[in-house]
Amino acid sequence: MKFGTAYLALICLLASNTSSNNNNEVAAFSTPLLARRSSSTISSSSSFQRSTASSSPSPPLILLSMAEGGGASASSSTEQDDEIARLKAMAQKLRSEAAGLEADQAKERADVAKLAFEKFDINQDGEISVKELKAGLEKQMKTELSDDRVQKLMNEFDVNNDGFLQIDEMVSVDQFRNKLEAYAREEKRLAREALSDAKKEEDKAKLAEARLEILNDKDPTQRDKVLSVLPYLFPLLDSLQFGRFLIVDNADNPLVGLLGLLYATYRSIPFSGFVAFLALNTLSSNPGLNRLIRFNMQQAIFLDIALFFPGLLTALVAGLGSVAGFTIPDAANQLSSTAIFGVLVLAVLYSSISSLLGEAPNKIPIISQAVEDRMPTTDMFDEEGRFVPRQARENKEDDKNKDKKDDNDKKKD
Q1: Mean pLDDT for the stretch of residues 279-285
Q2: What span, in angstroms and rounded, lies between the C-alpha atoms of 173 and 405?
Q3: Which H, E and C letters describe the chain, residue by residue?
Q4: Total structural domains in the chain?
Q5: What is the pTM for the complete model shown?
Q6: Domain boundary among 98, 117, 138
Q7: Would residue 398 count as lying in a domain?
Q8: Is the pLDDT of residue 51 over 50?
Q9: 346 within a domain of the structure (yes/no)
Q10: How far apart, in Å, do the first and last CA atoms of the chain sit?
Q11: Domain ends where: 210, 238, 256?
Q12: pLDDT tens digits, residue range 332-389?
């Protein structure tokens, strides 16, 4: 019975895979054959079962299994191919329709541009000038346009850069309008940025002005110029000890007599040198005084300190000479002392003249640079006028540089 059923399935499978013109022949062949197989199968059922238990599968079963697998695979492959072919046909149809739509739109744009070109080309010379473009747009848009905007439009659409629009460069009025609106938006954005920058600069100017009120770095007045000369009396009077030989030789000179009177008064005050140093050092820290006065106070202190070193050197040489058994000639002492005094007088004269002219005397080697480094500036104060220490300013500047570097790295990325 099993063999008959399997054979029946095989015949049905073969019948489904044959062409339509052979269907009758397969049916005629299969009907008597099935009848004979059915009777013989019933009589030999037991012997067939014994033989199948001890032997390998029979050829009809193997053929049936192969036929079933091959038929299913062929049917599935055929359906997939049909579906792919159908999708390809649909895609091709869509592409064809899209191409046709684009062609229609391009033709419509060309027709609109041609119509606009004919309206704008007033002199009918086959090209549109900036003047014709401006007149045509103002007529179509019913508004006045600036020459700069129209020129920007010409530069935008003039592909061959000949200064005119040809028919193939012409676009519709709507495209011109969209571009003009984009220009307007860009100009408004730039105007807002310019206004913001101006506001920032105004705030910076107000801050700088406020700091100037705290730190008097303004141009000196005539009173400031005269007062700025007075601090140099401090080093000048202390240097008279080096100019004693010159003073003695010119005792009849009225100027020398005036210096002698000032020196006597100066020395009559106890600790006059120390008091003068403290006074100048304290007053030079007052930000309300003009910068020229503060600068000269500091420079006068440095000049006075500089006088200490020649005196120290002279004492050391004299001490070494006494130990070594020789003495410095009086002529050498006189010459060196007079030279020191002369250098100091020249420095004081230079500083006084520059100050009276309203210029900072910052050309004295070494000393002037040291004074400049000590002078406070507006960036040493915060927005509220409080003094910011140097280390805090340097840390703030480092943080700004680091943030700027990070921003630049982000922009590069």
Answers
A1: 91
A2: 47
A3: CHHHHHHHHHHHHHHHHCCHHHHHHHHHHHHHHHHHHHHHHHHCHHHHHHHHHHCCCCHHHHHHHHHHHHHHHHHHHHHHHHHHHHHHHHHHHHHHHHHHHHHHHHHHHHHHHHHHHHHHCCCCCCCECHHHHHHHHHHHHCCCCCHHHHHHHHHHHCCCCCCCECHHHCCCHHHHHHHHHHHHHHHHHHHHHHHHHHHHHHHHHHHHHHHHHHCCCCCCCHHHHHHHHHHHHHHHHHHHHCCHHHHHHCCCCHHHHHHHHHHHHHHHCCCHHHHHHHHHHHHCCCCCCCHHHHHHHHHHHHHHHHCHHHHHHHHHHHHHHHHHCCCCCHHHHHHHHHHHHHHHHHHHHHHHHHHHCCCCCCCCCCHHHHHHHHCCCHHHECCCCCECCHHHHHHHHHHHHHHHHHHHHHHHC
A4: 3
A5: 0.47
A6: 98
A7: no
A8: no
A9: yes
A10: 80
A11: 210
A12: 778 888 899 899 999 999 999 999 999 999 999 999 999 998 887 766 666 555 656 5
Split at pLDDT 50, 70, 90, the class of 5 is very low
Question: What's the pLDDT score for residue 17?
Answer: 44
Residues 81 and 125 in one domain: no
Tokens of 105: 């739109």
Rounded Cα distance, 389 and 397, in Å: 12
Residues 6+ apart with CB under 8 A from 371: 295, 298, 299, 302, 362
Does residue 263 share a domain with residue 361?
yes
Residue 195, both tokens: 């206004």
Looking at the domain assignment, is residue 174 inside a domain? Answer: yes
Q: Is residue 232 located within the same domain as residue 349?
A: yes
Residue 111 in any domain: the answer is yes
Domain limits for position 265: 220-376
For residues 85 and 109, membership in a common domain is answered with no
Shared-domain flag, residues 242 and 361: yes
pLDDT of residue 44 exceeding 80: no
Domain shared by 226 and 346, yes or no = yes
Which tokens sit at 335?
A: 């010459």
List all residues 6 or more positions away from 369 whose beta carbon is below 8 Å from its beta carbon: 362
Centre a 10 Å sphere on the Cβ of residue 171 and count the other Cβ atoms it contains.
18
Q: Are residues 356 and 226 in the same domain?
A: yes
Average pLDDT for 52-58: 41
